[in-house]
Amino acid sequence: MNGVLLLIPIALGLGLLGLASFFWSLRQGQFDDLDGAALRIFVEDEEDLAP
């Protein structure tokens, strides 16, 4: 029973930390351009084409 009393607050704290970091990344604009990152692999760099 003592282990449960220790693990529940730790689990809740880690969950709140993950939720806070998710909202922080939303506010910083990490998820603004989802299509650009997926299509960037198809764009050839000009410096790679030079002999």
Descriptive notes:
This protein has a domain at 1-27. The N and C termini lie far apart (69 Å). The chain is 73% helix and 0% strand. The protein is mainly α and 51 residues long. 0% of the residues are buried. It is elongated, with a radius of gyration of 21 Å. Keywords: Membrane, Transmembrane, Transmembrane helix. It holds the Pfam family FixS. The chain crosses the membrane at residues 6-26.
Brief synopsis:
The chain is an all-alpha fold and 51 residues long.
Question: Topology, please?
Answer:
Layout: H1 2-28, H2 34-39, H3 46-49
**From N to C, what is the helix and strand string?**
HHH
Binned, the helix content reads over 70%
In round numbers, the mean pLDDT is 86
> C-alpha Rg, in Å?
21 Å
Q: Could you tell me the strand content as a percent range? A: under 5%
Poorly predicted runs? none
Please give the number of β-strands.
0
Protein name: Putative membrane protein
Transmembrane segments: 6-26
Keywords: Membrane, Transmembrane, Transmembrane helix
InterPro entries: Cyt_oxidase_maturation_cbb3 (IPR004714)
